[in-house]
Amino acid sequence: MHWLDACGGLSSYNAHAFESHSNQLVVLDHPLAILALLVFLSSYLLVIFEEKLHLPKSKPMIFSAGLLWIIAAIIGKQLGVSHDVMEAAVTHNLEEFAELFLFLLVAMIYINALEERDVFEALKGYLISKGLNYRQLFWVTSGIAFLLSPIADNLTTALIMGAVVMAVGRDNPMFIAQTCVVIVVAANAGGAFSPFGDITTLMVWQSGHATFFDFFQLFMPAVVNYLIPATIISRFIPKGQPPTLSERIEVKNGGYLACGLFLLTICLAVTFENVLGLPPYLGMMFGLSLLFLTIYIKKRTLKESDADVQYNVFSKLAIPEWDTLLFFFSVMYCVGALGFLGYLTSISEIMYGEWGATAANITAGVLSAIIDNIPVMFAILTMQPDMDHFQWLLITFTAGVGGSMLSVGSAAGVALMGVAKGHYTFMTHLRWVGVIALGYIGGIATHFLLNG
Asked: 157 with 197: CB under 8 angstroms?
């Protein structure tokens, strides 16, 4: 029998606690294993209060990742786990992280290239100059957030539309707060039906549980998830019209070309997987090379002194993006350590064995509002529960939109708290949690109705 009977104290821990076929221990009652769980939960509290503490979320998680594997190594040494097996357990998730890292890096470089060419600033200036009233601006900004998120990801979308809302509603704090709430909902909902819209959808796509076109089955559930809270909150948007601004920014030379190359790169990622049988990140890297070659050619054909072409796509890949990537790495390794200690197996047996897949996936979506959807989704992918295609789409949807219920539940909410500081806060978002939950339930019901 490979499972550990831990009731006899520390002396009962032995090498039989190691599951050789799954490279994991089963030592849930070991004092050090309990300490590891407490360290993880404590570090996540620091992540939740990132905005208050001004502590980047990657820092406590990197510390926790290292400490958790130190604890796992100590327990493994006590149980006689070999060095090779321990090393294999640590590097188990490295390939998956490397693939996601390269994929996200390419997307971030493209987004920063578009920002440098003032593509998003031109959009903001266009909306500001149209002279729309507050309610129209509410629907336009949230609608764009819903449509832009599948391409630009929910974090970037929230930052862009948050800047627009702050610019046009600077004299109306209520408009800013309420619109930011719906932008978070819209960005997360839009990201749920696209592999590029959120890290969690990208993880599901990369893991092979859904093809690129499978995600579009979640379009109508995402629309319902967005429209229910947006329709209700729109009734409370202040009347009137903000001052018309004449601000208008033109897209810099090469901006529209960069947009076309970005869309081409996405098509290459899909083609590499569906036609050539190659991993999507390879298509993204090939598409990135096209951007680099285009920049080189432009610099050669235009005057070298022309400031309009003297830019570096890496120069704006700033702290927030690296913080996100390092946070993602840390979460994967924290969850990997907890999985090595046997926690994920036990949780999977309770949630998916006793509750059933539907209840487990809906609950996981609610948890993603508290814990963040990245560790929730990675934990489920690591558990590998026996689910059909419908259920994998359900967890993709619930993990993607569940974070909208709290401002700290998604990258979009955390980003907006920084952009609209003092106007959009944890408490202003919490006031609408019941309305957002209605959208969550409505989206799930739509998925069952259309895809069940």
From this structure: no
Contact in structure between 72 and 334 (CB atoms under 8 Å): no
* Strand pairing report for 24-25 and 18-19: antiparallel
Q: Is residue 13 part of a domain?
A: no
**Residue 71 falls within a domain, yes or no?**
no
Under 8 Å between Cβ of 184 and 416: yes
Range name among 283-287, 390-394, 419-423, 442-446 with the lowest pLDDT average: 419-423
Mean residue pLDDT of the chain comes to: 80
Question: What is the rounded distance in angstroms from the CA atom of residue 116 to the CA atom of residue 79?
Answer: 54
Position 213, amino acid: F
Give me the mean pLDDT over the 215-239 stretch. 94
Query: Would you call 275 helix, strand, or coil by DSSP?
Result: coil
Q: What are phi and psi of 37, to 5 degrees?
A: -65, -40
Range of the domain at 144: 94-451
Is the residue at 157 inside a domain? Answer: yes
pLDDT in tens, 306-353: 544 455 555 554 444 677 678 778 877 888 888 888 887 777 778 888
* Residue 21 domain-assigned (yes or no): no
The pair of three-digit structure tokens given for residue 210, joined into one six-digit string = 């859904």
Q: Which residues contact 59 (CB under 8 A, 6 or more apart)?
A: none
In this prediction, residue 437 carries a pLDDT of 95
Instruction: Locate 262 and state its tokens.
Output: 């970005």
Question: Are the beta carbons of 379 and 344 closer than 8 angstroms?
Answer: yes
Surface-to-core class of residue 52, CB atoms within 10 Å of its CB (0-12 exposed, 13-18 middle, 19+ buried): exposed
DSSP at 238: P
Q: Are 261 and 294 in contact (CB under 8 A)?
A: yes
Cα gap 249→126, rounded to integer Å: 8
Task: Tell me how many domains the chain contains.
Answer: 1
Per mean pLDDT, which range of 134-138, 183-187, 279-283, 297-301 is the poorest? 297-301
